[in-house]
Specification:
With 127 residues, the chain is of the alpha+beta class. It has 2 domains: 2-86, Double Stranded RNA Binding Domain (2-Layer Sandwich), CATH 3.30.160; 90-127, no CATH class. Helices cover 33% and strands 23% of the residues. Strands 3-2-1-4 form a 4-stranded antiparallel β-sheet, covered by helices on one side. It is elongated, with a radius of gyration of 18 Å.
Protein backbone atom coordinates (compact mmCIF):
# COMPACT_ATOMS: atom_id res chain seq x y z
CA UNK A 1 0.00 0.00 0.00
CA UNK A 2 1.50 3.29 -1.13
CA UNK A 3 1.57 6.38 1.11
CA UNK A 4 2.81 9.85 0.18
CA UNK A 5 3.63 12.62 2.65
CA UNK A 6 5.26 16.03 2.35
CA UNK A 7 8.68 16.26 3.95
CA UNK A 8 10.99 19.17 4.71
CA UNK A 9 14.66 18.53 3.93
CA UNK A 10 17.31 20.63 5.65
CA UNK A 11 20.98 20.93 4.72
CA UNK A 12 23.62 21.55 7.38
CA UNK A 13 27.33 21.44 6.63
CA UNK A 14 26.92 19.09 3.68
CA UNK A 15 24.61 16.70 5.50
CA UNK A 16 20.83 16.49 5.35
CA UNK A 17 18.05 15.81 7.80
CA UNK A 18 14.35 15.49 7.08
CA UNK A 19 11.14 15.92 9.02
CA UNK A 20 7.51 15.13 8.25
CA UNK A 21 5.16 17.95 9.37
CA UNK A 22 2.19 15.58 9.60
CA UNK A 23 4.02 12.94 11.64
CA UNK A 24 5.41 14.26 14.94
CA UNK A 25 8.80 12.77 15.74
CA UNK A 26 9.27 11.18 12.33
CA UNK A 27 12.74 12.38 11.33
CA UNK A 28 15.90 10.98 9.83
CA UNK A 29 19.18 12.11 8.29
CA UNK A 30 21.88 11.23 5.78
CA UNK A 31 25.21 12.32 4.36
CA UNK A 32 23.85 12.85 0.84
CA UNK A 33 20.51 13.75 -0.67
CA UNK A 34 20.06 10.25 -2.13
CA UNK A 35 20.85 8.56 1.18
CA UNK A 36 18.56 10.93 3.05
CA UNK A 37 15.68 10.25 0.64
CA UNK A 38 16.10 6.49 1.12
CA UNK A 39 16.22 6.95 4.90
CA UNK A 40 13.14 9.17 4.70
CA UNK A 41 11.21 6.45 2.89
CA UNK A 42 12.25 3.89 5.51
CA UNK A 43 11.43 6.24 8.40
CA UNK A 44 8.02 6.97 6.89
CA UNK A 45 7.25 3.28 6.46
CA UNK A 46 8.40 2.47 10.00
CA UNK A 47 6.33 5.28 11.47
CA UNK A 48 3.17 4.23 9.60
CA UNK A 49 3.64 0.55 10.44
CA UNK A 50 4.02 1.47 14.11
CA UNK A 51 0.74 3.39 13.99
CA UNK A 52 -0.95 0.39 12.37
CA UNK A 53 0.46 -2.09 14.88
CA UNK A 54 -0.74 0.13 17.74
CA UNK A 55 -4.13 0.42 16.03
CA UNK A 56 -3.81 4.19 15.80
CA UNK A 57 -5.26 6.30 13.03
CA UNK A 58 -2.91 7.27 10.19
CA UNK A 59 -3.16 11.05 9.75
CA UNK A 60 -3.95 12.48 6.34
CA UNK A 61 -1.16 14.25 4.52
CA UNK A 62 -1.29 18.02 4.33
CA UNK A 63 -1.35 19.70 0.95
CA UNK A 64 2.09 21.03 0.08
CA UNK A 65 0.68 24.52 -0.51
CA UNK A 66 -0.31 24.70 3.16
CA UNK A 67 3.18 24.02 4.54
CA UNK A 68 5.59 26.83 5.31
CA UNK A 69 9.30 26.19 4.86
CA UNK A 70 12.17 28.30 6.15
CA UNK A 71 14.99 29.39 3.88
CA UNK A 72 17.18 26.60 5.25
CA UNK A 73 14.89 23.85 3.96
CA UNK A 74 13.00 22.66 0.92
CA UNK A 75 9.73 20.79 0.62
CA UNK A 76 9.21 17.63 -1.39
CA UNK A 77 7.03 14.54 -1.35
CA UNK A 78 8.27 11.24 0.04
CA UNK A 79 6.50 8.00 -0.78
CA UNK A 80 6.75 4.53 0.67
CA UNK A 81 5.10 1.21 0.03
CA UNK A 82 4.54 -0.33 3.45
CA UNK A 83 4.07 -3.74 1.85
CA UNK A 84 7.86 -3.83 1.37
CA UNK A 85 8.34 -3.67 5.13
CA UNK A 86 5.64 -5.89 6.56
CA UNK A 87 4.20 -9.34 6.25
CA UNK A 88 2.32 -9.20 2.97
CA UNK A 89 1.19 -12.81 2.93
CA UNK A 90 -2.12 -12.90 1.12
CA UNK A 91 -5.15 -14.37 2.86
CA UNK A 92 -7.91 -15.86 0.73
CA UNK A 93 -11.40 -14.63 1.58
CA UNK A 94 -14.72 -15.86 0.28
CA UNK A 95 -17.44 -13.26 -0.11
CA UNK A 96 -20.86 -12.89 -1.61
CA UNK A 97 -22.07 -10.01 -3.77
CA UNK A 98 -25.12 -9.60 -6.01
CA UNK A 99 -24.72 -11.12 -9.47
CA UNK A 100 -25.47 -7.83 -11.24
CA UNK A 101 -22.68 -6.11 -9.28
CA UNK A 102 -20.24 -8.90 -10.09
CA UNK A 103 -21.14 -8.79 -13.80
CA UNK A 104 -20.65 -5.02 -13.98
CA UNK A 105 -17.31 -5.16 -12.16
CA UNK A 106 -16.04 -8.00 -14.37
CA UNK A 107 -17.18 -6.09 -17.48
CA UNK A 108 -15.12 -3.08 -16.35
CA UNK A 109 -12.09 -5.23 -15.45
CA UNK A 110 -12.05 -4.20 -11.79
CA UNK A 111 -9.60 -5.90 -9.46
CA UNK A 112 -11.78 -7.25 -6.64
CA UNK A 113 -8.87 -7.77 -4.22
CA UNK A 114 -7.55 -4.24 -4.68
CA UNK A 115 -10.99 -2.69 -4.24
CA UNK A 116 -11.64 -4.70 -1.07
CA UNK A 117 -8.24 -3.71 0.38
CA UNK A 118 -8.86 -0.01 -0.36
CA UNK A 119 -12.36 -0.19 1.13
CA UNK A 120 -11.07 -1.86 4.31
CA UNK A 121 -8.34 0.74 4.74
CA UNK A 122 -10.91 3.49 4.34
CA UNK A 123 -13.44 1.84 6.65
CA UNK A 124 -10.80 1.18 9.29
CA UNK A 125 -9.66 4.80 8.96
CA UNK A 126 -6.08 3.77 8.29
CA UNK A 127 -5.57 6.47 5.73
Amino acid sequence: MLFVYPAIFHEEEGNYWVEFPDLPGCQTYGDSLNTTMKCAQEALAGYLLTLLSEEKRIPPSTRMQEIEVTEQGFLTLVSCDINQYKDTKAVKKTLTIPAWLNDLAVERNYNFSQILQEALVSRLQLK
